[in-house]
Amino acid sequence: MTIHLRWEGTRVTHFQAYGTMYGVRRTTIYLPEDLKSSLARAAQEEGRTEADLIRENLISRRTSTGCWTASARSDSSRHQRVADCH
Asked: For residues 25 and 14, what is the distance between their CA atoms, to the nearest angstrom?
């Protein structure tokens, strides 16, 4: 694994790691520009990767039974709850 750090004084301002993550599958998501910008900003502020923040938020939306919580969006044709996953 290769790690790159950028320092400003005694504070790391940029962290980037390259390597292989085992036990995960790669996927692509398309985000509106405002959501992508806020994700990038949050990742930088927390010193984490965008992927890590996405995983954390997806996990928090899943119930203990493995079902997904209902979407807050009103466009139910695009965002439906997983049917009977108990």
From this structure: 25
**Residue-range domains of the chain with CATH:** 24-64 (1.10.1220)
Q: Classify strands 2-8 and 11-18 as parallel, antiparallel or unpaired.
A: antiparallel
Q: What is the pLDDT of residues 41-58, one digit of tens each?
A: 999 999 999 999 998 888
- Provide the token pair at 28: 């692509």
Angstrom distances, CA of residue 81 to CA of 8, 24, 27, 57, 58: 45, 23, 21, 16, 14
**Tokens 């009103």 correspond to what residue?**
74
Supply the pLDDT for residue 10.
Answer: 74
